Amino acid sequence: MKMFNKLSVLIALLLVLVAGCDKAETAEGVDTVNAQGIQEIIAKSKGKVVLVNFWATWCPPCRAEIPELIELRKKFSDDDLVMIGVSVDQDSDAVDEFMLKNEKFNYPVYFAAEDVGASFRIQSIPRTMLYDPAGQRVFDKEGSYPGAMFERYINKMLKDR
Q1: Dihedral of CA 33/35/39/42: which sign?
Q2: The 3-state secondary structure of the chain, one letter per residue
Q3: For an engineered disulfide with 76, which of 8, 81, 110, 131 has Cβ 3.0 to 4.6 Å away?
């Protein structure tokens, strides 16, 4: 009986240890991307529409549009749409924490390196850019916009490709 109790305690400790490791592995953090990295994503996505959304965790309009962007992403295949979020927060810890506690993003989210703001002339957020399948920027606006508007733009560009 004592052996059974010791074995039970050992199994319980192993389960706690494994659960703790699993959580640490899923909380890896957000990758940092510089301006060149964003340009490379756009360039590698020829033939697809690319949506780049600049946002921050402290920005209420940014946070409000995330659920619409998540829904928008569900409507298009990976062959038609590449979508990325780029956080312009002051440090990546805020983004990591936000990602763990909030929305279940279905598109990649990056932390902006220092050169991103100047390279993309970010003055206000949220800011969304759309690139057509040829890689040309066709939409570049500050402010929050409904997902249905982006859906119309994307469908038109896909039809015209």
Answers
A1: positive
A2: CHHHHHHHHHHHHHHHHHHHHHHHHHCCCCCEECHHHHHHHHHCCCCCEEEEEEECCCCHHHHHHHHHHHHHHHCCCCCCEEEEEEECCCCHHHHHHHHHHCCCCCCCEEEECCHHHHHCCCCCCCEEEEECCCCCEEEEEECCCCHHHHHHHHHHHHHHC
A3: 81
Q: What is the pLDDT of residues 76-125, one digit of tens each?
A: 999 999 999 999 999 999 999 999 887 689 999 999 999 999 999 999 99
Compute the distance between CA of residue 71 and CA of residue 39 in angstroms, rounded to an integer.
25
Tokens encoding 66: 């995330």
Q: Pseudo-torsion of CA 144, 149, 155, 161, nearest 10°?
A: -60
Catalytic entry in 51, 56, 59, 99: 59
Our answer to whether residue 21 is catalytic in this structure is no
Q: What pLDDT score does 103 carry?
A: 67
59 has catalytic annotation: yes
